[in-house]
Amino acid sequence: MPLIPQEPQIHERAQGPSAAPATGRTAPTPRPVPGPRPVPGPRSASAPRPGRPGPGPARPAPPAQRSQSPAGKPQAPGSTTPPVPQIQLVPASADGALDAAEEAVDLLLDSGRAPGDILVLTTGEQHPWAAHELSFGETAYWAQHDAGDDVFFADADAVARAQSRPVVVVVVNGGADDAVARTLPLARDRAAALLVVCGDSERVNAALGAGV
Predict the structure, then answer these.
(1) At what angle do helices 201-208 and 177-190 cross, to 10 degrees?
(2) Start-to-end Cα distance in the chain
(3) Per the confidence metrics, is the pTM higher than 0.70?
């Protein structure tokens, strides 16, 4: 069943890093999206990796989201069926999807989600944080993933290697349609509570198809 595009509300609130609204966002009353955080420069071996910025201006509480399937539904005793995550679509163009995802992550953090609860996957160009950290080698990069104490950004091709987290955010910022179609079901499997998809509504719904 296709997802209905909606205002970028993430079920929970958070602060955000970006300064211009995401291009192609179709919400009737979009919230300002702060600008993307700058790409970190080279660092010395002893310098800490770039952290998330401090809290931004407070936003009003978002209205209740519409989701395709209920999250947190109690399972019957002895049931082995994994919980079905909520799925939320945040409409955005390919160019604006990363900004929309940044805002979604910040809303989640501001709502009380721990940074280690969140995995972000990009279908097109890598997130600047991932590109920066990979410059120090894959071993150190994936060690941060395994530590599970911060938001982790990865290419969608790495979804099979990524461990399950409560929240998975998929950024449809490029990539072939068949690659996006492969990524979304895998990302849903990795999301224990909430799957947020930032991208073009028609493309996302076509990729999800009847599999959701």
Answers:
(1) 70
(2) 7
(3) no
